[in-house]
Specification:
elongated
Length: 246
Amino acid sequence: GTSLSISNDSSASAKPPSRNKFRNLPLQRPHERTLFLFYALGAIVPYLYFLSKQATGGTSSTCSIHLFVPAVQAVTSLVWSSFIMAISFMEAWVKFRAPFLRKYIAVDVGRHVFAALNAVELGLALAMWLGRSLVAHAAVGAAKLSLVLPAVATTLLLIEAFYISPKLHVRAKAQIVKEMEKPGGDDNISSEEVNDLRSIQEEIKIIGSLPSPRWHVVYVALELIKVICLGCFVATVWSHAASAAG
């Protein structure tokens, strides 16, 4: 079985176990940092465009100035909530319905996808708040629009990314080890995969007790609250814009 090949295979040198307590935090992998920068920079471009137009006298309309920041934040919120709904409320559970997808593979894919999702969300949240601060001196009318909803969503994101997600990553790794060590696990894994698995095994041994499975429920609840907050914010901006236009 897989457990025997992992324990007795001396041809592959195992990676030394990492004792870095930050390894399960977001933005630890190059592709996560790439996603973070891509969406942060992409979402801040409209604010930079606004500043460049203002510098050249191209934003003379008071209405456009007052509505610009809420409009851009609404689009950012819409993209942000769309990511959450696509990943947390569709991909996360649909992949476990695939009959030919091994469970340990689904769990491993899931932990990487959610780490990437956190990176994207952090990038969008950063752009939302940084962009607003860049143009706050010009779009004074935007201050009339309450920022409570995006502030709540951002706070929940930080709690998820830096407190709950690391706990869920540990549980996911433990689940991967459990599934791989079962009789009839996958014997056809490469030496590199064996090394990775050994590293995860050592990490789980170092950690000891696993976080409670209830953190999954807490995470889902916070995801739902975030979607509601972001959706309500988009609706509020739409109503605000309609009133201003009228």
